[in-house]
């Protein structure tokens, strides 16, 4: 995408298959903001990335008119505040609704992501425990979704982006580890939401290629389980 225009110069440092980069790309796409995606090599990070995020040295980084913003959900909130006149509003205007949305975003990052990583890294009983924990976390999110099309109401909002950016990776981890996390019987509302979210305009265009993601996650899993070599 072209990164300069009425929105200023917008660059996004990242990799297309990263769930955290996907979060930012969804927000940019929903707002209709033109940007340049600069693909990073995570094994050989660019000077631009190291200079733009000197503390954590991680992707994603949004560079808007030369100024860097780091951390996926901080970037999403920056996008909303900077281009708040562009629909849709992904952050609620009401302070109470805003606090609830931020609570669930923190829950996803602090509780759900570690449990999913546990499924990916674990084996046997350890993996099964992580699956149960992941499902229990999603049950709580299912309750939060009750009575709404999206977590944001009628339109995609902050919580939808936080969880939705992870979906492709979660579904791939399910396949690679032969696990069921998004259980249609236990999570009927969330299962419906998953289908709707992935088909939404502004979302489907930026989701990573499933075959490529499967290949990458499978390679990562193989490295975890392969015995060490050498003395």
UniProtKB/TrEMBL annotation:
<dbReference type="InterPro" id="IPR040079">
    <property type="entry name" value="Glutathione_S-Trfase"/>
</dbReference>
<comment type="similarity">
    <text>Belongs to the GST superfamily. Tau family.</text>
</comment>
<feature type="domain" description="GST N-terminal">
    <location>
        <begin position="8"/>
        <end position="87"/>
    </location>
</feature>
<dbReference type="Pfam" id="PF00043">
    <property type="entry name" value="GST_C"/>
</dbReference>
<dbReference type="InterPro" id="IPR045073">
    <property type="entry name" value="Omega/Tau-like"/>
</dbReference>
<dbReference type="GO" id="GO:0004364">
    <property type="term" value="F:glutathione transferase activity"/>
</dbReference>
<dbReference type="InterPro" id="IPR045074">
    <property type="entry name" value="GST_C_Tau"/>
</dbReference>
<dbReference type="InterPro" id="IPR004045">
    <property type="entry name" value="Glutathione_S-Trfase_N"/>
</dbReference>
<dbReference type="InterPro" id="IPR004046">
    <property type="entry name" value="GST_C"/>
</dbReference>
<dbReference type="GO" id="GO:0009407">
    <property type="term" value="P:toxin catabolic process"/>
</dbReference>
<dbReference type="InterPro" id="IPR036282">
    <property type="entry name" value="Glutathione-S-Trfase_C_sf"/>
</dbReference>
<feature type="domain" description="GST C-terminal">
    <location>
        <begin position="94"/>
        <end position="224"/>
    </location>
</feature>
<dbReference type="GO" id="GO:0005737">
    <property type="term" value="C:cytoplasm"/>
</dbReference>
<protein>
    <recommendedName>
        <fullName>glutathione transferase</fullName>
        <ecNumber>2.5.1.18</ecNumber>
    </recommendedName>
</protein>
<dbReference type="GO" id="GO:0006749">
    <property type="term" value="P:glutathione metabolic process"/>
</dbReference>
<dbReference type="InterPro" id="IPR010987">
    <property type="entry name" value="Glutathione-S-Trfase_C-like"/>
</dbReference>
<keyword id="KW-0808">Transferase</keyword>
<dbReference type="InterPro" id="IPR036249">
    <property type="entry name" value="Thioredoxin-like_sf"/>
</dbReference>
<dbReference type="Pfam" id="PF02798">
    <property type="entry name" value="GST_N"/>
</dbReference>
